[in-house]
Design a protein that fits this description.
RutC-like_sf; YjgF/YER057c/UK114; 3 helices; globular; about 140 residues; deaminase activity; alpha+beta; four-stranded mixed beta sheet; RidA family protein
């Protein structure tokens, strides 16, 4: 059974003043094996080394690549994504981060929460995203 996405929307409609294009929804109804990912940061999964970029777009690509890799290792796929929480250290990076994240969630419509924080675990990190997936029965 596919997940039920309630009240799908796109951020270009809800935030017309911002240059965003994210497919989201207000609620997801899912059944199956729940996979909770640790908050993903712009670092290599094998070595824990930071990527060599202070650009929020580059950092978000790495974060989303890590998320995609981990859900694959858990036996799922990006289409099983139900929720993301985006942590930013600077609200001015919001549009760049959300545009980049949107490339990975196009057509999926997860629920999303965004939070601006004082800092993340490493001073070089600008973005951290945690994700919850449900792999259908």
């Amino acid at each position: 059974m596919a997940h039920t996405r309630i009240r799908k929307f796109n951020t270009r409609d809800t935030y017309p003043e911002q240059k965003l294009d994210n497919d989201l929804c207000q609620a997801v109804v899912a059944r199956g094996a729940t996979v909770f990912l640790r908050g993903q940061c712009p670092q290599d999964l094998d070595t824990a080394a930071n990527i060599a970029s202070a650009d929020p777009v580059d950092q978000t690509h790495k974060v989303m690549q890590n998320i995609r890799q981990l859900i694959g290792e858990a036996g799922g796929e990006m289409a099983h994504l139900c929720k993301v929480v985006v942590y930013l250290t600077d609200v001015r990076h919001r549009e760049a981060v959300y545009r980049t994240m949107g490339e990975y969630i196009k057509g999926i419509h997860p629920v999303s929460t965004g939070v601006v924080v004082t800092a993340l675990a490493r001073p070089d990190w600008l973005v951290e995203i945690d994700a919850t997936f449900v792999i259908p029965d």
